[in-house]
Amino acid sequence: MLLVVVLELEGEKGEWGFKALKQMIKINFKLTNFPEMMNRYKQLLTYIRSAVTRNYSEKSINSILDYISTSKQMDLLQEFYETTLDALKDAKNDRLWFKTNTKLGKLYLEREEYGKLQKILRQLHQSCQTDDGEDDLKKGTQLLEIYALEIQMYTAQKNNKKLKALYEQSLHIKSAIPHPLIMGVIRECGGKMHLREGEFEKAHTDFFEAFKNYDESGSPRRTTCLKYLVLANMLMKSGINPFDSQEAKPYKNDPDILAMTNLVSSYQNNDITEFEKILKTNHSNIMDDPFIREHIEELLRNIRTQVLIKLIKPYTRIHIPFISKELNIDAGDVESLLVQCILDSTINGRIDQVNQLLELDHQKRNGARYMALDKWTNQLNTLNQAVVSKLA
């Protein structure tokens, strides 16, 4: 092999040997010959101290790291990053050290090894602090990268308390020109946090910002975030179609998004049969995402509640088995839904479990309405008297 010959003919370590090793690493990676690839990589790292310039070695190793990062072999990636960090202890290349540690942190996040990730986060934070132990705002871009990684960890752990504080902190860093991908990550996690807290409008705003940032950076996460935007839109009970916006419109008929588009339509029309049919037909597309799956039950409860209210409106008494048939759920689930609606005053009534009946108290509901009207009339009368006395 010509590249091996180049290495053998090389006397003193220099640029040609470095270039040959770069190509050998990439070739062995493509051939999945990982032991040989690691040997050649370790050999290449001995060149970075003096054989090639600092800028050239940094650019080359960055390129190799990005190339190898496409691998799905977690153990290989871990060995690769750790080998790089060992070599950088003497090289004193802070930028390369930061990038490699960030990549290793992302790997630990993916593997859910949060203890190891926290250790890396501590090191990264220390590298961006002043002598007083405060965040060095001159390193705003790096700080945002660290925050993005930490925010993802707290999102995965569903630790909303720490997530909220960190999220607010990240939005107040003004000294950085952040990469849209980093801001996309931060906004997406913010959206998840707000949605879990029932702050649907804030979640909608964050998911929309995340979608725009991902779209700008060309990240495939944009379609996932668009699904989350649609989810927030439905939970807001908004009548506005999320695909009416200029940014989202081109994705309306995207195959990955189409199921969610149809879901919005059936949800807004309170068409429970169509809603459940779409869920069943597109089960993997919708339910394979753990975050969407987490909130689908709430959507089903909302749409069932709307259908239930419309269904019982003409009646004073209605059989629970009849409601069960109309909503296409078990009688037990109907009772649970009714209990919830009665407790939050969506429905005024009581359940007769013996006879399997819902007895409705329309008078109570009308009474509350008349009391509100009476109060409003009295307020108008008081206001009228005040105006008349001023004019007199």
UniProtKB/TrEMBL annotation:
Xref: InterPro entries: 26S_Proteasome/COP9_Components, COPS2_C, PCI_dom, TPR-like_helical_dom_sf, WH_DNA-bd_sf
Keywords tagged on the record: Cytoplasm, Nucleus, Signalosome
PROSITE patterns found in the cross-reference section: PCI (PS50250)
GO cellular component, one term: COP9 signalosome
Pfam families referenced in this protein's UniProt entry, alphabetically: COPS2_C, PCI
Compartment(s) of residence: Cytoplasm; Nucleus
Domain of life: Eukaryota
Limits of the PCI domain: 203-365
Principal location listed in the UniProt entry: cytoplasm
Family, as annotated: Belongs to the CSN2 family.
Record-given protein name: COP9 signalosome complex subunit 2
Taxonomic path: Eukaryota, Metazoa, Chordata, Craniata, Vertebrata
Gene label: COPS2
